[in-house]
């Protein structure tokens, strides 16, 4: 069992800026300035969110913007490249820089995904079928790299959480199990993303139950079954899946995930940390503030926060 410390600040509910604009495909929602996103984040009753591609990187400016709205930063999206030849040391330096930035803006978590040869940002490749399959040397580099990155985070009083992600080399249940079997439970936690699990044929409820003690960050995101049923046989790219509306927020009647057993698993585990609503949606099809309110109400009614 992990001896990973419990954070003392309790459960905090956030929402990602990807509900307004998209980091992988910035033309989606690029009309929204970050100040507008943060205003609506606060208006809908959230405590913060991650940084987005259009957020300031100047620490005093970002801190002032957040403090004026009484918001915090959950993490920032950190893509590692431990499996790419010649990128191991540079990846650790990149992680170190991101840790310093996050600490400076008051964050406690760093969420990472391995993007070596990933296809989630490639608009024409099947996100499930054309993604990388790591060989033994790559698995070795990935796991020792994550342990070292986790150690760097721990030295700064922060928690590293690994995010299994469609389109990458850690997508299915076998790969998730291997990664967490081969990394240090005290250094590398799980960022549970319910929708990425569902998209990759991984039962998110089973994953939450099996890894309850390893979960250190949560992305609450739903999947529309009517789109998923087309996306898998249709070999959709991540871009096409987003454009056709595969993702939505908890509480949307069109969604297919029952979050209540997941909430129960987290409650039994006495989970402490961020639970962050996320849904890469086209704001022209799904008005962000409306969906932010839907999710916030659902979480309050079913999880009590």
Structure commentary:
With 305 residues, the protein is of the alpha/beta class. The protein contains 11 helices and 11 strands. It has helices spanning 34-43, 59-67, 88-104, 136-155, 173-181, 194-199, 204-210, 225-231, 238-243, 260-268, 288-303, and strands at 11-15, 48-49, 72-73, 77-80, 109-114, 159-162, 188-193, 215-220, 222-223, 247-248, 273-277. It has a 7-stranded parallel beta sheet. A two-stranded parallel sheet has the order 2-3. A two-stranded antiparallel ribbon has the order 9-10. The chain is globular. 48% of the residues are buried.
Topology:
Elements: E1 11-15, H1 34-43, E2 48-49, H2 59-67, E3 72-73, E4 77-80, H3 88-104, E5 109-114, H4 136-155, E6 159-162, H5 173-181, E7 188-193, H6 194-199, H7 204-210, E8 215-220, E9 222-223, H8 225-231, H9 238-243, E10 247-248, H10 260-268, E11 273-277, H11 288-303
Parallel strand pairs: 1-11, 2-3, 4-5, 5-6, 6-7, 7-8, 8-11
Antiparallel strand pairs: 9-10
Helix pairs in contact: 3-4, 7-10
């Amino acid at each position: 069992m992990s001896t990973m410390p419990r954070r003392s600040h309790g459960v905090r509910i956030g929402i990602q800026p990807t509900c307004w604009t998209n980091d992988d495909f910035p033309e989606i929602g690029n009309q929204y300035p970050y100040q507008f996103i943060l205003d609506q984040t606060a208006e809908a009753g959230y405590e913060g969110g991650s940084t987005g591609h259009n957020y300031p990187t100047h620490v005093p400016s970002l801190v002032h913007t957040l403090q004026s709205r009484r918001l915090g930063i959950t993490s920032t999206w950190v893509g590692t490249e431990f499996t790419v030849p010649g990128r191991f040391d540079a990846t650790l330096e990149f992680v170190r820089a991101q840790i310093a930035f996050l600490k400076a803006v008051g964050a406690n978590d760093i969420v990472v995904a391995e993007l070596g040869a990933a296809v989630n940002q490639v608009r024409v490749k099947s996100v499930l079928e054309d993604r990388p399959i790591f060989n033994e040397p790559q698995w070795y580099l990935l796991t020792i790299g994550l342990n070292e990155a986790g150690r760097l985070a721990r030295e700064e009083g922060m928690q590293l959480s690994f995010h299994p992600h469609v389109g990458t080399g850690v997508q299915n249940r076998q790969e998730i199990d291997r990664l967490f079997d081969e990394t240090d439970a005290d250094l590398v936690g799980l960022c549970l993303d319910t929708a990425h699990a569902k998209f990759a044929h991984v039962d998110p409820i089973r994953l939450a139950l099996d890894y309850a003690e390893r979960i250190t960050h949560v992305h609450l995101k739903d999947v529309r079954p009517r789109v998923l049923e087309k996306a898998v046989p249709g070999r959709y790219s991540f871009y096409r899946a987003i454009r056709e509306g595969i993702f939505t927020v908890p509480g949307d009647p069109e969604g297919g995930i029952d979050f209540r057993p997941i909430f129960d698993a987290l409650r039994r585990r006495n989970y402490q940390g961020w639970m962050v609503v996320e849904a890469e949606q086209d704001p022209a099809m799904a008005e962000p503030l409306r969906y932010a309110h839907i999710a916030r109400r659902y979480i309050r009614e079913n999880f009590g926060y």
